[in-house]
Amino acid sequence: MEESHDLIYLDNAATTMTYKEVVDEMMDYFTDLYGNPSSVYEFAGKSRKAMEDARSLIADTLGAKKEEIYFTAGGTESDNWALRSVSKEFGSKGKHIITSKIEHPAIMNTAGNLEELGFDVTYVNVDENGFIKLNELERAIRKDTILISVMAANNEIGTLQPIREIGRIARKNNIVFHTDAVQMYGQLPIDVNEYNIDMLSASAHKFHGPKGIGFLYVRESVPVSSFIYGGGQENHKRAGTQNVPGIVGMASAAGIAHKRMEEKRIQETWLRNYFVNRILKEIPFSRLNGDRNRRLPGNVNISFQFVDASELLASLDMKGICASSGSACSSHSTKPSHVLEAIGLPENLIYSTIRMTLSESTTKEQLDYVVEVLKEISSEYRENSSEYAECFAF
Question: N- to C-terminal Cα distance for the chain?
């Protein structure tokens, strides 16, 4: 293929480009307004005001109160804090936690650690499209269940979980409901009161904000334990000087994301469907993973049978196309994706799967080029595949 292209970035589920206007807004708090928000003089008060204004803005995007927003270093910390806080605050009531089999490693590994500490964790199954089995979730509830933690949208296959129904089940049974909304926040609307969400995790770099900053929402009625000890920052719950530039940048990105949300959703959904339709129609033995419609707007998770995903990704990289095999947090693992295993994908397809995630800057012309590259590469690999040859030997 002779045509050359600039970088085509299709890994927005891993991280997004920080908006230029977000960076511009952050800069003053690195240089001119660098005061420590915990100091008492007027100069520091400007940083403190910016931080509290950011807290209010983020709370408004969720229908929450500003006092319910705690700043963290990102989604992983927020997930850890949520699970560990509930285990500490409610451990005397019970030691049973319910989650799903397709959670992010930040939830899966924290839950595993809590099991080592004496907690009992039930991992609820999902169906072939990645939707949690609600009947199974309800049956798993016990008298000693203290927490249900289910992600709002899956980071690999994009499935949108029925968090409204899960929240209703949790509230009916007086159980704390936490959702990892790292992939969904800034993409689709979330109202913590409408969905009966008690705790919610988010990370700025997933919605065009800076890396290294996120937040944990905790409903006012839910007690929250200290996560980092030291000073009195974050209402004495998370010590350490706050990252004011990051906080300002996260709020700026959140404001932009929620202002553009519907327009962006329509655009990305159309591009996603166009891209998926071309791939499935024009590349034999390709399969879309996750529900066709109830998925994140920009998520495309495809298995290319008889093609090794790692080799495909390397070839795409050589063509200037960035994609991934799943969660960036597990990208160096040789183990098969636990998400694809949970939906029942055969092992040969698991190792033939890549994830391509779009953004508002993705163009139809870029996707047309990617399809042509995928057609070329998959055809070349299949020609040299003994497994492919055996399947069509007469």
Answer: 32
pLDDT digits (tens, 9 = 90+) for 334-366: 689 999 999 999 999 999 999 999 999 999 999
Q: Tens digits of per-residue pLDDT, 20-57?
A: 999 999 999 999 999 999 999 999 999 999 999 999 99
C-alpha span between 9 and 355 (Å, rounded): 12
Token code pair at residue 135: 């009947």
Secondary structure letter of residue 19 according to DSSP: P
Structure tokens at 383: 């020609």
| Backbone angles phi and psi of 93, in degrees to 5 | -80, -40
**Which uninterrupted H or E stretch holds 76?**
helix 75-89
Tokens, residue 234: 């974050």
Q: What is the pLDDT of residue 94?
A: 97
Report how far residue 268's alpha carbon sits from residue 366's, in angstroms, rounded to the nearest whole number.
13
Over the stretch 69-83, which tens digit does the pLDDT of each residue have?
999 999 999 999 999
Q: What is the pTM of this model?
A: 0.95
Confidence of residue 384 (pLDDT cuts 50, 70, 90): confident
Q: Can you say whether residue 16 is alpha, beta or left, with left for phi > 0 and alpha for psi between -120 and 50 degrees?
A: beta
List the catalytic residues.
329
Residues 6+ apart with CB under 8 A from 169: 134, 137, 138, 141, 148
Closest CA to 146 of 112, 99, 211, 107: 99
Q: Give residue 2's pLDDT.
A: 46
Listing from the earlier edge strand, what are the strands of the sheet with 96-100?
69-72, 214-218, 199-203, 176-180, 145-149, 96-100, 120-124
Contacts of 61 (CB under 8 A, 6+ apart): 185, 190, 254, 255, 258
Percent of the chain residues topping a pLDDT of 70:
95
Beta-carbon neighbour count of residue 312 at 10 Å?
21
Mean pLDDT of the chain: 95
Interacting residues of 208 by C-beta distance below 8 A, sequence separation 6+: 16, 17, 18, 19, 22, 186, 253, 256, 257
| 286-288 sheet: strands from edge to edge | 286-288, 299-304, 353-357
Q: Which residue, among 304, 285, 287, 290, has the nearest Cα to 339 in the 3D structure?
A: 290
Cβ contact 146:95 at 8 Å: yes
Angle of CA points 157, 158, 162, to nearest 5°: 120
